[in-house]
Design a protein that fits this description.
- The structure is a single chain.
- The chain folds into 2 domains: 5-162 and 371-392, Aldehyde Dehydrogenase, Chain A, domain 1 (3-Layer(aba) Sandwich); 166-351, Aldehyde Dehydrogenase, Chain A, domain 2, CATH 3.40.309.
- The protein has 11 helices and 19 strands.
- The protein has helices spanning 5-25, 64-75, 89-105, 120-128, 141-153, 176-188, 208-221, 242-257, 290-293, 309-316, 332-339, and strands at 33-34, 41-49, 52-56, 79-83, 113-115, 132-138, 157-161, 166-170, 198-204, 261-264, 280-283, 300-306, 321-322, 324-328, 348-351, 363-364, 367-368, 375-376, 385-393.
- It has a 7-stranded mixed beta sheet, sandwiched between helices.
- Helix 1 packs parallel to helix 2 (64-75), helix 4 packs parallel to helix 5 and helix 6 packs across helix 7 (208-221).
- The radius of gyration is 24 Å and the shape is globular.
Length: 407
């Protein structure tokens, strides 16, 4: 998809990590034993496989997202049907062939992990098929809304991992030696094509100018490191396709028309073959400006000014999506407010680290128009199983719940 080599290797490592996690998880599945109000009765929960799990993955993580779903779905006892993005079929084929070898070596039918490449019509067939008990969809909010409705119309289970208009808040006591590299990585990494990419930087007015100057300087130092993603010196690769370049140009133009100032970049790099654009910094826009509220899958960073923690949180929560968020501060009071009910409304809530680069041990996903789904670690495995509440009468009488007498 154009990802630089270290990030590509890291993505494969993420699949390896989730396999390790899943293997351990396979010996740890547990349900609850619940006290019964009835004499000589016992209640417990049991988790059972769903059956077929459909995975519709996006172009930007053509290996890892499938890995999150596949590893957990398999240890939960399911089979998996994968439809990758139509622009990244080769990665999917390579991954499937590796899995096939492992399954055959262990005398398991390789159809357990099946692959179907194709366009939207294939995805719609999966979404509408009653035999597919769970559909895990990763992609845009617009398409996710359609897929969600199609699956829900047949009362199937749906796991949605959609967009994220993610923000970093920088308070006036922040350690800028952490802020600058974190912002640069989160806004430029994968050429701004991660769902957890930082798209809004909310900076306290006391250090606003200083932060902008430092980020501009950091961006300037990376000018020579835009290029071939297989080159070890490259940190910024291309956008995925020509359509992404057009969306980048449209958003930059909209930002300018809306009163924004291009502090850095804003241009398509036409002096080289490929879909290269310059990382872009935009200032001068209000937090609720439509272009700021829109997720553009490109390296565009909108820098916004705030005068207080409360205002910064409000700006963070303005986004329709609720995937990832981060605050840089040394104030423990603000940190715990940030985690609390009046803090960030995102599924990923960080402190003094970037919005991107999540570990596999925690549940990954977001709220609002991000879809509410959770993948990877913690108890995300529960989405790949069905839960039964089981009641056993091991006595000789038949007491009824709530003390009802039916005599």
């Amino acid at each position: 998809m154009g990802k630089i080599l270290p990030e590509g290797v890291g993505e494969v490592q993420e699949y390896v990590d989730i396999c390790d996690f899943a293997v351990g998880l396979s010996r740890m599945f547990s349900g609850k034993i619940i006290p019964s109000e009835r004499f000589e009765h016992e209640l417990h929960e049991r988790w059972n496989p769903l059956g077929v799990v459909g995975v519709i993955s996006a172009f930007n993580f053509p290996c890892a997202v499938y890995g999150w779903n596949n590893a957990l779905a398999l240890v939960c006892g399911n089979s998996v049907l994968w439809k990758p993005a139509p622009t990244t079929p080769l990665t999917a084929i390579a991954v499937t062939k590796l899995i096939e070898k492992v399954l055959i070596r262990n005398n398991i039918n390789p159809a357990l992990c099946s692959l179907i490449c194709g366009d939207a019509d294939v995805g719609q067939s999966i979404a509408k098929d009653d035999n597919v008990k769970l559909v895990s969809f990763t992609g845009s909010t617009e398409v996710g809304r359609i897929v969600g409705c199609q699956v829900q119309s047949r009362f199937g289970k749906i796991l949605l991992e959609l967009g994220g208009n993610n923000a970093i808040i920088v308070m006036d006591d922040a350690d800028l030696d952490l802020v600058i590299p974190a912002t640069v990585f989160a806004s430029i990494g994968t050429a701004g094509q991660r769902c957890t990419t930082t798209r809004r930087l909310i900076v306290h007015e006391k250090i606003y100018d200083e932060v902008i100057n430092k980020i501009k300087k950091a961006y300037q130092q990376l000018e020579s490191r835009v290029g071939d993603p297989t080159d070890s010196n490259t940190l910024i690769g291309p956008l995925h396709n020509k359509e992404a370049v057009l969306k980048f140009k449209a958003s930059v133009a909209e930002a300018i028309v809306s009163g924004g100032k291009i502090e850095y970049g804003g241009k398509v790099l036409e002096n080289r073959p490929g879909n290269y654009v310059s990382p872009t910094i935009v200032t001068g826009l209000k937090p609720d400006t439509p272009v700021v509220m829109k997720e553009t899958f490109a390296p565009i960073l909108y820098v916004l000014k705030t005068s207080s923690f409360e205002e910064a949180v409000k700006i963070n929560n303005m986004a329709k999506q609720g995937l990832s968020s981060s605050i840089f501060t040394k104030d423990t009071g603000k940190i715990f407010k940030w985690f609390g009910p009046k803090g960030s409304d995102c599924g990923i809530v960080n402190v003094n680290i970037p919005t991107s680069g999540a570990e596999i041990g925690g549940a990954f996903g977001g709220e609002k128009e991000t879809g509410g789904g959770r993948e990877s670690g913690s108890d995300a495995w529960k989405q790949y199983m069905r839960r039964s509440t089981c009641t056993i009468n091991y006595g000789k009488s038949l007491p009824l719940a709530q003390g009802i007498k039916f005599e």
